[in-house]
């Protein structure tokens, strides 16, 4: 999950329901059953241990930005543009042990909260819903 458990519990107590903070889909499982946001957990662990992202081994910083990205940065000194910098392809995130699936075809969801993906996209699997379906 994206937030700490006390925050989620406070939200649930106030609203009597819990929704995904990103897509606002209603969550039907308990807070304890929610999967951890592994990327956030690793980032926080790195910050707590005092490691920089470059030395920690979880990420490699991009070596350069495209000229267009550099121009965006100068026009908005705080870096608050609608889309973040485009990273060069050599950035890597090590997520060993995180179940994944590769999309065999394009899919455009029919229901609110459905994923949209293209053939070849890698999808992180959050939990198995039944024998054939996963939430990702």
TrEMBL record:
Q: Name one GO molecular function term.
A: ubiquitin protein ligase activity
Keyword Oxidoreductase (UniProt): no
| Key words of the record | SH3 domain
Gene Ontology cellular component list:
nucleoplasm
Quick one: where's region Disordered?
52-84
* UniProt domain SH3: residue ranges: 96-136
- InterPro entries recorded: Endophilin_SH3RF, SH3-like_dom_sf, SH3_domain, Znf_RING/FYVE/PHD
**What GO biological process terms are annotated to this protein in UniProt?**
negative regulation of apoptotic process; positive regulation of JNK cascade; positive regulation of proteasomal ubiquitin-dependent protein catabolic process; protein ubiquitination
- Which Pfam families does the protein's record reference? SH3_2
Q: Which SUPFAM superfamilies match?
A: RING/U-box, SH3-domain
Could you confirm whether the keyword Hydrolase appears in this record? Answer: no
Tell me the PANTHER family matching this sequence. E3 UBIQUITIN-PROTEIN LIGASE SH3RF2 (PTHR14167:SF60), SH3 DOMAIN-CONTAINING (PTHR14167)
Protein name (Swiss-Prot/TrEMBL): SH3 domain containing ring finger 2
* Organism name: Mustela putorius furo (European domestic ferret)
